[in-house]
Amino acid sequence: MKTNDVILQTTAKVVFFIIFLFSIHIFFTGHYAPGGGFVGGLLTTGAIVLLLLAFDLRTIQQILPFNFTVVTAIGLVLALATAAGSIFFNVPFFTHAYDYFTLPLFGKTSLHTAMLFDSGVYLVVVGSAITIIQSIGGDD
Amino acid sequence: MEFVLLIFLPVIFAILVPFVYKYIKGIHTGWLVLLVPLALFSYYLSFMPLMMDGGHAISELKWIPSLGITFTSYIDGLSLLFTLLITGIGSLVVLYSVFYMDKQKEDLGSFYVYLLLFMTAMLGVVQSDNTITLYLFWELTSISSFLLIGFWYTRDKSRFGALKSMMITVFGGLMMLGGFTLLSIMGNTFSIRELIAQAPELVNHPYFTLALLLILLGAFTKSAQFPFYIWLPDAMEAPTPVSAYLHSATMVKAGIYLVARFTPIFGTSSTWIWLVTGIGLLTLFWGSFFAVKQTDLKAILAFSTVSQLGLIMSLLGAGAISYHTTEAMFALATYAAIFHLINHATFKGGLFMIAGIIDHETGTRDIRKLGGLMSVMPISFTVALIGSFSMAGLPPFNGFLSKEMFLDSMVALQHFELFNFDTWGILFPIIAWVASVFTFTYSLYFVLKTFVGQKNFEQLPRQPHEAPIGMLLSPMILASLVLIFFFIPNLVGKWIIKPAVMAVQPTLYASPEAVDVHVLAWHGFGSTALWLTVGIVIVGSLLYVTIPKWQPLYKIQPAKLSLNEGYDALMRGSEKGMNRMSRLYMDGVIRTYLLYMFAFLSVTMIAVLFIKDAFVIDMTSFTALSLYGVLNAVILVLAVGFVVFAKSRLAAIIALGGVGYSVALFFVIFKAPDLALTQLVIETVSVALFLLAFKHLPALSSHGETAKTKIVNFVVALSVGVMVTLVALSSHSQKLIPSISQYYKDTVATEAGGGNIVNVILVDYRGFDTFFEIGVLAIAGIAVLGMIRLRVSRKETTDENK
Known about the structure:
The complex is a heterodimer.
Chain A: H1 6-29, H2 37-54, H3 57-63, H4 68-85, E1 98-103, E2 107-112, H5 113-137
Antiparallel strand pairs in A: 1-2
Helix pairs in contact in A: 1-2, 2-5, 4-5
Chain B: H1 9-23, H2 29-45, H3 48-52, E1 57-64, E2 69-75, H4 77-100, H5 108-127, H6 131-149, H7 156-187, H8 192-197, H9 199-202, H10 208-222, H11 231-234, H12 240-249, H13 254-266, H14 270-291, H15 297-319, H16 328-362, H17 378-392, H18 398-413, H19 421-424, H20 427-451, H21 469-487, H22 489-504, H23 528-545, H24 547-550, H25 563-585, H26 590-611, H27 627-645, H28 649-669, H29 673-693, H30 707-733, H31 741-747, H32 757-765, H33 767-788
Antiparallel strand pairs in B: 1-2
Helix pairs in contact in B: 1-2, 1-5, 2-4, 2-5, 4-5, 4-12, 4-16, 4-21, 4-22, 5-6, 6-7, 7-10, 10-13, 12-16, 13-15, 14-15, 14-20, 15-16, 15-20, 16-17, 16-18, 16-21, 16-22, 17-20, 17-21, 18-20, 18-21, 18-23, 20-23, 26-30, 27-28, 28-29, 32-33
């Protein structure tokens, strides 16, 4: 049976970017407002799932040609490396550091190592969620 | 220099090995690996002058300072001797393996990683002063031995042998850990040096004998003493370089090291002397007797190793007697133990390599098919002859010297007057002599049946010819050492043995020179040992000539009554028993398991609430009912009802999503935006997942439920609901400890530089939790991938037996 889902597909193309950008926003704003790596990662996953529902797995793999298990691994390594990095500054494992910088365009910005750790979380969430979805959905 | 770090050099190098193996194809990986033991060997040689003066060296690396656990490299005469054996024989074995392990066919990457791992572990065992790190390295040797025995993992026998060795040695290791724990309780320290300093007080402690027994169990399992030796013959499935290295020269001597190291603490006890000497002698006899039964070259060598380990063990036991008497003979025993340990490493290492060469060049190790190889493999024959004659205790080889000292010590035992030795002591020289006769016999059996006699080259899988020179190099070096040591025993004694003896019995000797032993090959016609040796040669030769007549006698022992059968029965029995026990409650249906969990959870929680009288309701702090709240609750209940009573699974899934969304709405109402956001997204993604998995799920109606199971389910569900409600009400109504929220509020901006407590908790305050959570998430992802994508058909290539 061939369904006609032009409306869904057209909408999905636009809405995907809205959700995706929102997830990035939520990820960065996490330290001060609701959000963070975990929710951000889930939202990105949600955006990809939307594409998946509108199109099919093969299309998704063409659009996002990543190996998501590798994404998971990179996330884990990033999180561990951030946590372990503090050892080299002779402070206990997992000590975060932050400071305020004045950047062009952004103005006064705070930069945290916690953000690096959070991006590890983000990558792991996206990576393993999509891995699971791809495995279950792709099993015919 | 912090030489404690050198212990880790091999394992650090091992990280590079896979890359070397993958990207440098031109050279055999072994050549590069060879650099490691060679460099270590030459470095450790520089410690020798210090040891000859009776000194020691310490280097420390803190690991867990709060618990007193450190990596301490304590090098004295004994440690140095073992260190040199490990690195020296290690170099020769790696050199041999370059020619033995085929570059194209074998997985050299893994092989050398395991071998280097073992090297680190073994160096750690013999240098650690801290009992906990000693234990750590001890188990690491078991694990690397497991990996190496199972190197050809497609063979059933390799896997069986690997598991057996691991089971027995790890069992012993755990017992030893118990002994160490007791020792640390008794002496209030993990350091062996400090324990030795307290030795006189420790003897009277009530735990003393228990600690002694437990540590001996560790030593006996590792050094393959009776009745634990059964793993060693099965370990011969390992590639021959491994057998030569782990299972004859180094790892199996770890138990001997342990006994030697703890002699200053336990040596004064009669239990120690009786057990170490007695079990050692029994093992010596048992191993040599059963060696003649074997038909596989490596099996003969395995039993001979068992027996020689027993010999060294019994000498260490006899050496401990010198705490009780001034008779020079017993000082000789410790000296002989160390001397024989070195000699055994040289001749047995060479013999193993020859066995490997024969296997390599003829395609079989079955002694019944071999014969007459002397004419085609003259160099191998010479090396094998030197090794065997040294093992048999003939001059002019080093084995003769230590064997004579051994016989002397055993003869002296009968005159020792403490601990009932004057009544039973006569047994010791007799057993020692009989065992030596069998040793002589199997030495002849090994070398003559292989190299002399009838040629049946047609029976052999391969046309035999001499091995390449590179392969012969290592055994030739070892064989020349066998000869050299015979001519300069006292130099070797001065360099290595006397410092080691002093380390074994530090209270008896002030300096290595104080060990008053001078080794002589010829004591004159009055020497007892000489006549015992002559007797051994005559009776042994007679036994060898008549082997075909009496070898069938071994078949009298029923196979059912052997120790191996006992081990197998134990393993089978425990496996079956465990299986049966699990079957009692594991039926493979997830809903049953959920039932157990929920029932257990609600019963324990409710019981605790009542026993502790913790159930309190305090209505005053409740939030006032709001219209949104009530409406939301009604929707929630309706959705739950819909899930339970839905006729189609699709409807149930969607209703479940409704449940989740209304919970998210509650979070919104109670002003928890982070939770609400997460819950909403989770709900969306999981409904999508459910829909994806939808087509794989079985039909909704086929649960096979009866009225009875429905009632049980209902009761459990109800009790879980009651439990959660009670716990929620109680925990809301009473605050036993002040909430931590205030701390977070105060510090979130100052300490963590953030504004959103929830997220800062996730990434900073409780970052460890989050880190392990994403670890679990990643594992879950990979597990799903593994279950679904990688469903390789079971009977594919991996399981065949070549």
